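Please review this pair:
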Amino acid sequence: MSCARRARSVDLPVYDLVIRNGLLVDGSGAPPRPADVAIAGETVAAIGAIHDRGRAELDVRGLIVAPGFIDVHSHDDRALIEQPELPFKLRQGVTTDIIGNCGWALVPRSPANDAHAPALFGPLATAMEWTGFASYFQRLTDAAPACNVGALIGHGAVRLAVMGRAARPPGPDELAEMSALVEAGMEAGALGLSSGLTYEPAVHASTAELVELARAAAAAGGLYASHLRDEGDHLLEAVDEAIQIGREADCPVQISHHKAMGRRNWGKITRSIAAIDRAGRAGVDVTADVYPYTASSTILGAVAAQGIEDGADAAGITIASTKAGAGLEGASLADLASSWNLSAAETARRIAEADSGTIVIRHGMDEADVRNALSHERAMIGSDGIPGVGKPHPRLYGTFARVLGHYARDQRLFPIEEAVRRMTALPARKFKLARRGQLQQGWAADIVCFEPETVDDRATYEAPRRYPAGIVHVVVNGSIVLRDGTQLPARPGRFLRLDG
């Protein structure tokens, strides 16, 4: 009798999930190795040769098993609430999404921010019932997203809340009020402060203002992430400013979507990388995120404010999404200017006036610069995807698979284990996401299983809403959310606070 009971107990499942026969790339940068991964609850329970059964099992023979990818630069602030399934992220293998970039955010609430939000994120179908950082972060939790989410405090939103669109430096009381808002956001669980210095109203902010607010974020352990003041003619000066802010505020710095825009600026990436490395040697923690494409995407009004020239410049700008009129999406600014018998600048102005939320794609980067930025040891991956209607930039659907397939496998820019490290451990350490970014016993069970020979992006500028190939299984906090390429109903994501 007792022997029979013992025999049956041996057969009982020990783990909730066992992933068997995979090639483990653990996120540390170590070479791939064969290993099983066992999961209990939301954490990795064991790695190696797992002989005990799981309640669920995945045989992943021929697949790479890696930590879930961390998208450090997204604009899913609205999508997480209204489309919490986030298929365009999960089907890339993204298990953690960081919002609030470029100074854009849905908090703090104010009449000016509420009026500005639709231009940044599109009109919200649900009411903005939150009042501050804590209630907004709770709203993200209540949305039960399919992936984890972390948030940055948007400098532009903070400035709008205190100063509206004032084109001047803040007074002492205003600066104190902005600092208090940053402190409140950090206390509520934000990961740091972001800025978008080519956008209104942040374009009017001085370096001194940014230092003071970055200092408030750093006091709570946060970082400063910046869409630089210039990514073209004055790229190097803008990088120097970000480094200065980090040094004076004693704050880690993240340079957003590191690139050099415009043909006359091609090659500057080598010099901006050198500046980042010099800062690192001098004790300033500076890193960058990069997306693997030669075109950018942003609000048309911001592009128009920088000046648009007729000819190749206008031909390289296409309308991604707009409510300014039917038939505009997918058209180039040069073609529209020609058909309307206007200059490109005037055409852009009219479209932006009709819809301030018009998003464009702008071709203007050099492939050699993209490769240099990607291969820099301090670079991680961020999609900078902007969800919405129309024809978005293909980076929204394809970023992470493109790095794995095109750049790591086909171009051999770096080994697959280094590609994975840049998507996992490197960002987890930078953004202080505790026990994430590597597959280790006792760490969060955020996992992606992909086919190394077939993984690739399939989204194009003409057909951007195509999911990538080769992403087979995704696990978030121990729950399978993508199985055999099919998304499941589970939405086990968590709001991730600083260091937790």
About this structure: The longest helix spans residues 172-188. The mean pLDDT is 95.
